[in-house]
Amino acid sequence: MIVLISLPLMEAVLQAITHESIYNSFPHFLKQRTLGIRIFLNTPGHTDFFWKERFINIPQEKDFLFSLHDIHPTRGWWPKPHLHMVFNRGTKGYHYTTNDSGHRTLQKNYEKKKTIMLIGDSFTFGVDLDDAYIWPAVLDSMLTETNIINLAVAGYGPDQMLVTLREEIDHIHPDLILVNFIAEDLMRSLLTFRDFAKPRFEYVNGKLVQTQKILSSISEAREKIQSSIWRQRIIFQSKLIKLSYVLFKNINYQMSYSDINLKIFMAMNQVAHERGIPLVHVFLANTGENNIDDTGEKFLRQLEKQGSQVINTRPDITSNKDPRFQRYGHYGLHESRFVAGVIKREINKLFPELHK
């Protein structure tokens, strides 16, 4: 009887906490005590459901990812080749240029003696910056004898980075590989769908196995999602059920994300090792991180304990007091230049033969 009474009451409280006008009427002390739950429930979270819902509700022609990318049969999506366009994000437009392979670059040819291949996500692809100001382009300008080939793609997780590395390494034959990640990327390894269907790996019988099939088209994905998503929409009307679901997903995430990501990053090491190419994992810290938010750094330390070579930008970024730095979000012009300098310095230490 108590349970029957308490469940509707809990549901009503959670609905009130997430309702904007009701929450704003709370006294200050109550707002403080319920803010964590409110953020927890109103944050999209790292669930397939959120991304599928977003996919079918946002017109693809207005979406950043589908304006600049094509569907890719093994990676999910990949930058369009021969791209030269301005895309407006917020109130500002940014120039995006790719070569015939879909690499973001202003260069038509790679003519320097040595090559560093970059794998990564939007922070390395350079969302919210013009072509010449992204940190890979700045690093390229600092290295007079070394090409920077940027294979990073917005929205990628470690699983997509692994697939990209496997498929591109023998075409590029780099002298060094930098795998660049942010803390949020680690959560993406548990998704089967983000901006679009993506590869997902599981560790089965001692082997890293890809378990997710990439959908062949936007129309196929839309049809498949619309046929089943109504069930989750109904279920998630209940804030209590949503809270329980998100808590379960986050507990599962905490238990499994580190294990599967370690396997994925170690697989990258193996791909490079088999070819005699050095590979370094680079943690790209966000300028808004503080002493508590150290998820990415902790994971980097796990990689280091496993014998990986690493570069940690977090100490430099969090100690920098430049007022021009953005607090959160993608790197701006000043952060981009700063990060390029940090990575160049660390490359010089690890590989002095590439310092020019």
Order of helices and strands: HHHHHEEEEEHHEHEHEEHHHEHEHH
Q: Which strands sit side by side, in order, in the main sheet?
A: 6-5-7-10-11
CATH names the topology of the largest domain as: Rossmann fold
Poorly predicted parts: none
Question: What is the tally of beta strands?
Answer: 11
Give the name of the CATH architecture of the largest domain. 3-Layer(aba) Sandwich
Which structural class is indicated by helix and strand composition? alpha/beta
Task: Bin the helical content.
Answer: 40-55%
Question: What is the tally of helical segments?
Answer: 15
**Mean pLDDT across all amino acids:** 84
> Oligomeric state of the chains?
single chain
How large a portion of the residues is in β-strands, by DSSP E?
15-25%
Specify Rg, calculated over alpha carbons: 22 Å
Number of domains: 2
- Sketch the major β-sheet: 5 strands, parallel
CATH-assigned homologous superfamily of the largest domain? SGNH hydrolase
